[in-house]
# Entry
Amino acid sequence: MKIQIRVLISFLVLAGSVTVILLSSYGFRSWFNASAVTDWIVSSEEKDTTDRHRQNMEESYQILPDHILLKPEKGEHMSHLVRLDRYGKMEQVVTERDVDSFLEIDQKVYYKIWKDYDEKWQNDIDTIYSYDYTTGKHTLVTEGTNIDWFSIYQDQLVYVCSDTSGCMDQVFSCQLNGQSKKKIYQFEGKLYGEQFVLTDDRMILFYDTEDSYESGIGMLSLQGNNYKCMLVLDGSPWKSFFLGQRFYIIDDNKLFQIALDLQKGRADKTLLSENEDYENIVFLCGRGDNLYSTNYDREFALIFEGGNP
# Structure
């Protein structure tokens, strides 16, 4: 009887140890959402997605030659910014503040955090910081009212924010240290959330005119301050991804490709496919020349393969 009890106790201890190990392993993986996003990133074998990420700032990750930046969607560091090695192992937490978007350029990470409110919760101030790997310091680069988007072109940080009334959007630029801030353009109304792209010396954006209920794609020169409508859209797409000099957008369960002709200032829209499942797409993302989608469970699905939907 004593032997049976000892065997039972030993079995329970062993089972408990295995359970602890499994839970610990699962806890580590779910810590930065390794079960979905990180495994997908590591398996992609991509060497560097900096240029693509610069044009798609809604991406939750950026692949560098020797590491990965990731904004986890669950776990202890949800919405923080972490650095992983190319195998998906945690190296460091870049910042524990809630990050909206980020971009690493030349060993510096530029990131926008969620709003800082004043004591009366009246001013919706967004801030953009830089983090230097060499010094380990975080530096405030710039701030503004309701910054919807930012990116970097050459040695300039370009961003979109609201005016003081909150009714019109403005485009600003500044040096990477925050100096020489200037207003490039002011729109007579609001733009779509974060659907902007920097390509060459131009800014491509989705606009929406409330008075006429017209939406479309516009082009703004960062040098000459010239703005031009490139294409009027029938609907109001809010999911887009820029891949290979083309936009891919989801609108009313339809996948469209929009080819840009920057020299002529035109854009051509082509229907690629139609699928009821498109309504469950949360984000569009890229791998190589292929376009993928993710659902609310962060499951990836191929929807466009190198030109063949």
Summary: The radius of gyration is 23 Å. The chain has a mean pLDDT of 82. The chain has three helices and 23 strands.
